[in-house]
Amino acid sequence: VTVFGKYLDNPIERVLVATASGQLESFINTESAVVGGIEFEYLQNLGRWFGEETAWRNFSLAFNTSLMYTDVSINKDATVGGSSVISTNEQRPLQGASPYLINADLTYTKRYGQNDEKKSTATLSYNVFGRRVFSAGAQGIGDIYEVPVNTLNFSLRNQLSDHWSLNFYARNLLNPQISQEQESDPNISDAGPVLVNQFRRAVDFSISIAYNVF
After folding, report:
1. Largest CA distance in the chain
2. What tens-digit pLDDT sequence spans the chain (214 residues)?
3. With 0-12 CB in 10 A as exposed, 13-18 as middle and 19+ as buried, what is 114?
4. Measuring CA to CA, how many Å separate 62 from each of 37, 40, 124, 163?
5. Which of 120, 73, 66 is closest to 97 using CA atoms?
6. What is the DSSP letter of 56?
7. Is the C-alpha dihedral spanning 86, 90, 93, 94 positive or negative?
8. What are the residues whose beta carbons fall under 8 Å from the beta carbon of 119, sequence distance 6 or more?
9. What are phi and psi of 116, to 5 degrees?
């Protein structure tokens, strides 16, 4: 268990700026930000639960989660292209920072060969993040938030000899829908966030063969 805190001087943030032709996405340095939270990490070989002499000794479980608080002090003198950037919200979370993060993976490792020189490792990993600011709004434009996304990946790494390895990766197996929502002005509308972008990244498969010279 780890407790952490950070002070950030002039952090870079992605912002939205109102223009004559619509919304311009750019970057500015805000004045400062504070970050604080707690992290919990757990790693366990399953053989200790189900028996060191069983096949479970080849499995390991890892879990990591963080709870985080962030707060930004706005730079009222920030400019983009010579124009002032007037932040819509003077108090908000740090852009790109999630209030929580969860990671978990299950790994199977097996050594074989005459001298155990060969090794295969299969890993199934999961990740999810909390709702976070994607772009900070300015000139009355609402902040855009990324909606939590569940991600599942699989990897199979095979050390065939001292030099050769064969690897397979399957990323984004759930292929979740990624959504971005923009906050509306509560003084104008009580409809809540407005969906501004939605897409899928698709599943990614790859195979690699590597030769280690040394």
Report:
1. 73
2. 999 999 999 999 998 887 766 678 889 888 999 999 999 999 999 999 888 888 899 999 999 999 999 999 887 777 777 667 778 888 899 999 999 999 999 999 998 877 777 899 999 999 999 999 999 988 888 899 999 999 999 999 999 888 899 999 999 999 999 999 998 865 665 667 889 999 999 999 999 999 988 8
3. exposed
4. 20, 11, 11, 29
5. 66
6. G
7. positive
8. 109, 110, 111, 112, 158, 159
9. 55, 30
Residues facing 69 on adjacent strands: 36
| Token pair for 181 | 């929502």
Question: How far, in Å, CA of 121 to CA of 157, rounded?
Answer: 5
Integer CA distances (angstroms), 6 to 11, 176, 197, 207, in order: 12, 32, 32, 40
DSSP string, 60-91: EEEEEEEEEEEEEE--TT-EETTEE--BS-SS
CA pair distance 74, 91, nearest whole angstrom? 8
Q: How many other CB atoms are found less than 10 A from the CB of residue 139?
A: 16
DSSP 98: -
d(CA 198, CA 80): 27
Which of 123, 106, 133 shows the shortest CA–CA distance to 193?
A: 133
Tens-place pLDDT, residues 163-194: 899 999 999 999 999 999 998 865 665 667 88
